[in-house]
Write a structure and sequence with these properties.
CATH superfamily of the largest domain: Metal-dependent hydrolases
GO molecular function: 8-oxoguanine deaminase activity; deaminase activity; metal ion binding
CATH class of the largest domain: Alpha Beta
CATH topology of the largest domain: TIM Barrel
Radius of gyration: 21 Å
CATH architecture of the largest domain: Alpha-Beta Barrel
Protein name: 8-oxoguanine deaminase
Strand content: 15-25%
Distance between the termini: 47 Å
Number of helices: 15
Largest sheet: 9 strands, mixed
Pfam families: Amidohydro_1
Helix content: 25-40%
Shape: globular
Keywords: Hydrolase, Metal-binding, Zinc
Enzyme class: hydrolase
Number of strands: 17
């Protein structure tokens, strides 16, 4: 494709311009799970104008493009609710460790992160997700070494250039090794510095509008790397600024033990005591939860980012996703950092969520293909507080959607396209749209040079390894 043609293809559409996608199977993931064996979607500017059966009306005005999507399934774009982009530079290390040992092994390297590394890692993480159908992503970035530069700005810039809808969970840690925490002291912030920098990040980058491409959440890292005062004041700051709250919770049995020893209560009770349960909160992992914990999340509307591959990689356990869903807890899917999920892809988490949860108490009744797809789309949008804008294909919602090719060798003999998408091999992405702008075509990114990103991430990973080896 010529450069000018490519620029036209992924330029933001004018408000009146229409793109028509038709002759495709559609899974809307709306409240009724409406599906069409052969239907159409009409995009008008950055919104979905219509979704329905059969072909689109022929007399639509200002149609700038008509896509014959025969052989495809169209779904909402995937929503990744938990990630650590910086970990793209440390994949494949400490592969046989549990969470605490893994953190101890990797924190000294992560503590040498700087701005160019953060930007390259964010590009790599976003590129891998976007080419696999992710249209909205959240990054929990809590490593802020002294003198490292503007890490938040570097990450936001990478997401903006990639064209992915983005939530930066501006993380923080103020409990270093000398205070009984796991990270080196020079990789943590003081309480006041963490709060001030988080507020500055919200004020600079958070967009509260309906079609926002960048939002910011307040996100102290975890109970074992953050003081109680940072948790409490972080919650107060988020609510004063009107943004969401995010942290890790109930990930391992060691964390459960740690909370009881340090705080005299389990993680969920500790979170509630510091103001960290509510409809504006989502937690990553939530593997080790009892019935009382689940009831507290349901009562308060606290969301969960389920990360099945990372939970398995770190031998953390199987989250009680069927029980969380039955109680009404909002649940979405997360890649988690690529130092504990080296593939870095969310579409594989649809399959892994279904399979891993069937190893639990509910067995074959745990999840089915459509519930898995809902976790990765509408469920994720709900967890990020954006279900009114994205996560399903409905008129008036933002034009975030994916065309999955289902007529190749990998999927053509599976009659049901949703089953094919979830249980089959990773499906090729023919096109992915975010805010009405196409960012992927035939599995390749249109917004950045993938080969250049690969070179940059390789170089920065090697530079990080050299610097860490000098300590």
């Amino acid at each position: 494709m010529a450069a000018s043609a490519a620029a036209d293809r992924f330029a933001a559409p004018a408000a009146a311009d229409r793109i028509v996608i038709e002759n495709c199977a559609i899974a809307t993931v709306d409240a009724d799970d409406t599906e069409y064996a052969s239907g159409h979607v009409v995009l008008a500017g950055h919104r979905i104008e219509a979704v329905g059966a059969g072909r689109a009306p022929e007399d639509l005005e200002n149609v700038v493009r008509r896509i014959d999507a025969t052989g495809h399934l169209v779904t909402p774009g995937l929503v990744n609710t938990h990630h650590h982009f910086y970990q793209w530079l440390t994949r494949g290390l400490a592969t046989d460790h549990n969470l605490f040992d893994w953190l101890v092994a990797l924190y000294p390297t992560w503590a040498r992160l700087d701005e160019p590394m953060a930007h390259a890692a964010a590009q790599g993480s976003l590129a891998m997700m976007a080419r696999g159908g992710v249209t909205t992503a959240a990054d929990h970035h809590y490593i802020h070494p002294r003198g490292a530069g503007d890490l938040s700005g570097a990450i936001v810039r990478a997401a903006r250039d990639m064209g992915v809808r983005f939530t930066l969970a501006r993380g923080s840690m103020d409990r270093g090794e000398s205070d009984g925490g796991l990270p080196p002291d020079f990789a943590v912030e003081s309480l006041d510095d963490a709060l001030a920098a988080t507020e500055a990040t919200v004020r600079e980058h958070h967009d509260p509008s309906f079609d926002a491409m960048t939002q910011v959440a307040v996100a102290p890292c975890s109970p074992f790397s953050v003081s109680t005062e940072l948790m409490r004041q972080g919650a107060e700051l988020a609510r004063r600024l009107g943004v969401r709250l995010h942290t890790h919770g109930s990930e391992t049995v060691e964390e459960e033990k740690y909370c009881h020893e340090l705080f005299g209560m389990g993680p969920t009770d500790y979170f509630e005591s510091t103001g960290w349960l509510g409809e504006d909160v989502w937690m990553a992992h939530c593997v080790h939860m009892n019935d009382s914990d689940i009831a507290a999340f349901a009562r308060t509307g606290t969301g969960v980012a389920h990360c099945p591959s990372s939970n398995a990689r770190l031998a953390a356990g199987i989250a009680r996703v069927p029980d969380l869903l039955a109680a009404g807890v909002p649940v979405g899917l997360g890649v988690d950092g690529t130092a504990s999920n080296e593939s870095g892809e969310l579409h594989t988490e649809l399959r892994n969520a279904l399979l891993i949860n069937r190893l639990g108490a509910h067995r074959e009744a745990a999840l089915n293909a459509r519930r898995a797809l809902r976790l990765g789309t509408h469920g994720g949008a709900r967890v990020l507080g954006r279900a009114a804008e994205t996560g399903s294909l409905e008129a008036g919602k933002l034009a975030d959607l994916v065309l999955w090719r289902m007529d190749t060798l990998a999927h053509s003999s599976i009659t049901d396209p949703v089953t094919a998408l979830v249980l089959g091999a990773p499906a090729p992405v023919t096109a992915s749209f975010v805010n009405g702008r196409q960012i992927v075509e035939d599995g390749r990114l249109l917004t950045v040079d993938e080969d250049a990103v690969a070179r940059s991430t390789r170089d920065e990973a090697r530079r990080l390894a050299r610097i860490a080896a000098q300590d």
